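Moderator note: this is an archived Q&A kept for reference. The question asked for a predicted structure of one protein chain; the sequence and the answer are reproduced below.
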Amino acid sequence: MSIQYPWALLLIIMIPAVLIARRKYAVRTGFSWVSVLGRNLQPGPIKAYGADLLAGAAMMLIVLAVANIQYSSYWQKTYLESKWIMLVQDLSGSMGRPSDETGSETLGDVALEGAHTFIDMRNKDDLIGIIAFSNQAQLIAPPSFDKEILRKKLELLSRKGDSTVFRELTVGGETNASYAAWLAVCVFFMLLPEESQPSYEQINDLRYSLMGRSVTALEIPDSLKRINFGQGMSIVLFTDGRIEANKSTEDVEKGLLNFVNVIELVKKLGIKLYLIVVGGDVTSEVRQALEGPAGDSSAGDIFYMPRTLDRKKITEVYNKINDLEKNRLLVKLDKRKKDTRGPLALAAAGILAAYCFLQILPSMRKI
C-alpha cells in the first residue's frame, strides 16, 4: 500500500478547526437565545451534531481522495508460450542428388517440403526464421509470425524457382554447418530487448572464442548470462554433409568455427539444437558434445536419416521435433496499482448530497 500525495494528509488537522468555526458562527448568528429555553425545547443530538458529522466525514473523504491511497492487486493470466525457432537448411551441391530410386526428386526438394510441413505444424504465435548455407550461411527470412511470408522465402531455396540465392549457395563446396548455427544464435541475440543485446565487440570476441580447439569454459558476457534463453528457443539444422569439429590451424585461418564450441555455447545459453543428418554422420566429439555425459542435460538431439529420403520419413522427424518443442501453457501474475481516489470521491459526493438534503428537511431543523 502507498500514498500518491502524502502531503495532502496534513489537511486532516484543519477539519476540526473548520467544524468548530462553523459551530461558533452558527451559535452566534442563529441560536444564541436557545440556551434560555427549557431543555426540552433544545435540539436533540442528531439535529445538533448530525450535520457536523456528515460535513466532517465528507471533508475527511475528500482529503483521502486527494492523497490517493493506492494498493496492489494481482491478476493471474494464462497464455501460450511463444517459441523462437530457426530453420537452417543445407543447400550444398550434394543436396541435388536424388532422394529415391526414381530420381524425380532431390534431397533438397524433400527437405524443403519437410520444412513447409513443420511451419504449418507450429503455433501461430511462434517466431520462425530461415537460414540457408553451403560453404557460407545466409539469413533468408528473419523470424516472423507470418507463415505465408515464410513459405514464399522457402521457395527461394527451391531448385525449381532457380533464384539468385539458390544459385549462389548451391555452388558452394564445403558444408559450413558451424557458421550456420552461429548465425542462428546471432539472430536470437538481435531479438533481445535493446538493453540486453550484446555489443558488436562482445559478439566478435565470442565468435573468435569459438574457433580452434574445443573448450568447455566459454566466456559469455554477463548481459547474456542473465537471460533465460531456455524458454522456447531452438535451432533445427538439416544437412546431408558430414558434420565434424573444425579445429585445425587451416580451419582457423579460414575463419571456420569449431562446431563443438558452438554446441557448448547453445547449451550454456539454454538453446536447443536439433540436427537432421541425411546419409552421413557426425564425429564422436560432436555427438558427445550434443548429447552430454550420462545423467547430464543434453544440448539437443540428432536424427539420422537414410540417403533415400521420402516425405513420410522427413515428416516423422519433424513431428518428433514438433513434439519436443511443444508450447507450454504459462501462468503470469501481473501486479497492478489500484487507486482509491474514485471511490472516495464518490462517497464524499454522496455524503455531501445527504448533508444538503438534511439541511432543507423541516424535521431536521434545530428549532
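Archived answer notes: The longest strand covers residues 69-80.
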